[in-house]
Design goal:
423 residues; alpha+beta; six-stranded antiparallel beta sheet; 24% strand; flat
């Protein structure tokens, strides 16, 4: 008992050192517990991957080949370590023959995709910028029609992974997100994803899976990190300072739209059985003696563009890839514009929501559905677009929808959740 009293007396007499020691020990224990939880997640994922690797294949079959486009600079240079610790062991244990191609500079992924040979699957390990470069390089290829049928896996290693919530569950834990995304690649379940083709007057087209953003909220979002010293107030401060410099924030823009097209029915993944030999002979004899009449060539109708003039602080042209399994009547892109009557308080309040989710719009915003659109900015206006969170110089562009252009791996649990939300 005397020893316990002596310990408490020592802690009381040296309370500053005791408090500091308690904080250090608490943080150290929390850090060690987090590392232990990460190890448990990796072990469970590797056990599931080992079951895939133990499956027998036929003698004429071969191991699946995967090409990984890895951006080591993603997530402040931590992407390479994250991939090697959390994703690569799962792929190796599953028996996938992987070829890792690391990018050295911005824009290299586009060039690599233009030269890459055919593979069984393509895996993008990075963030929005890496994914956008890979898709752009892929769809610029001369054989893009055949190459676009290659399934794509997205491992979220970047600071921004906008498409990841549409494909996997997000748990605010980097290790769980990476392992879940890698396991969904092994399961092999895919979903078709829409793509936007964005073309200027002279440059080659750029492709995006999320959308194109332009306006005051985009400009502020690019500057929020500069006010890091204000802590939790940095978002409010960035929007408020912007109103002091740039008010009024409303700009005029001309948008010409094409009507959306009806969505064709989904094709059955199973091929119909081939007719027997007698049926095929009878059909050929009928076509020989009574050939079908040739249909006249269809003449393409001229495109009917409808021009609209909008005054808005923010314009977002986006796909419906937030829920890629949703059954829709039309193949269309969405044009969203914030209302022009915005006050300083509204600008700050809405800006806080958009800092977390750029696709969030107010209830009285203008929303249009179109198959394609032409965007013309006011003369003399300077600024930038965000195309899948990558910055591009603002200019007149034409945006066309390429419906269900690419196939992405999706987890079965996430698919079921998105289907239930739609119902």
């Amino acid at each position: 008992m005397a020893r316990v009293v002596k310990v408490f007396r020592t802690l009381r007499n040296h309370w500053k050192k005791s408090t500091l020691a308690a904080c250090v020990l608490s943080y150290g224990g929390y850090w060690l517990y987090g590392k232990h939880c990460d190890s448990v997640v990796r072990r469970e994922a590797c056990q599931l991957a080992r079951e895939f690797g133990r499956q027998q294949i036929a003698p004429q079959e071969r191991l699946k080949k995967a090409t990984v486009i890895l951006n080591p600079a993603a997530h402040n240079g931590k992407a390479n370590n994250l991939f090697e610790k959390n994703a690569a062991p799962i792929l190796h244990l599953a028996g996938v023959e992987i070829t890792v191609v690391k990018t050295d500079y911005e824009g290299q992924a586009k060039k690599l995709m233009e030269l890459m040979e055919q593979t069984d699957m393509l895996i993008v390990a990075g963030g929005d910028g890496t994914l956008q470069e890979v898709i752009t390089g892929l769809l610029r290829r001369p054989d893009q029609e055949a190459f676009s049928r290659t399934p794509i896996g997205f491992i979220p290693l970047g600071s921004h992974n906008s498409l990841s919530p549409s494909l996997h569950f997000l748990r605010d834990d980097k290790v769980k997100d990476i392992t879940a995304a890698t396991l969904s690649i092994l399961n092999g379940e895919t979903v078709p994803v829409d793509v936007l083709q964005i073309k200027g007057e002279k440059e080659q087209p750029v492709f995006a899976v999320i959308g194109l953003r332009w306006g005051a909220f985009r400009d502020v979002a690019a500057k929020i990190s500069k006010y890091w010293y204000l802590g939790p107030l940095k978002t409010n401060a960035a929007h408020w300072f912007h109103t002091l410099r740039e008010w009024p924030l409303v700009q005029d823009v001309s948008v010409s739209v094409l009507a959306p097209r009806l969505r064709p029915p989904d094709l059955s993944p199973q091929k119909p059985p081939r007719p027997n030999l007698l049926s095929r002979i009878i059909r050929r004899l009928k076509n020989y003696w009574n050939p079908p009449a040739e249909e006249p060539p269809k003449t393409e109708e001229p495109e009917k563009w409808e021009e609209q003039h909008l005054s808005t602080p923010e314009l977002y042209i986006q796909t419906h890839n937030k829920n890629p399994v949703e059954r829709r009547v039309n193949d269309s892109l969405m044009i969203c514009a914030e209302p022009e009557n915005v006050s300083v308080g509204d600008f700050i309040a809405v800006g806080n929501k958009k800092a977390k989710d750029p696709t969030a719009f107010t209830e009285n915003s203008i929303k249009l559905e179109a198959g394609a659109c032409q965007l013309k900015l006011p003369e003399g206006s300077a600024g930038f677009y965000n195309i899948d969170n990558e910055e591009y110089e603002a200019m007149p562009v034409e945006v066309r929808l390429l419906p269900r252009k690419l196939l992405f791996f999706i987890s079965a649990e996430r698919r079921e959740q998105l289907l239930s939300q739609h119902q």
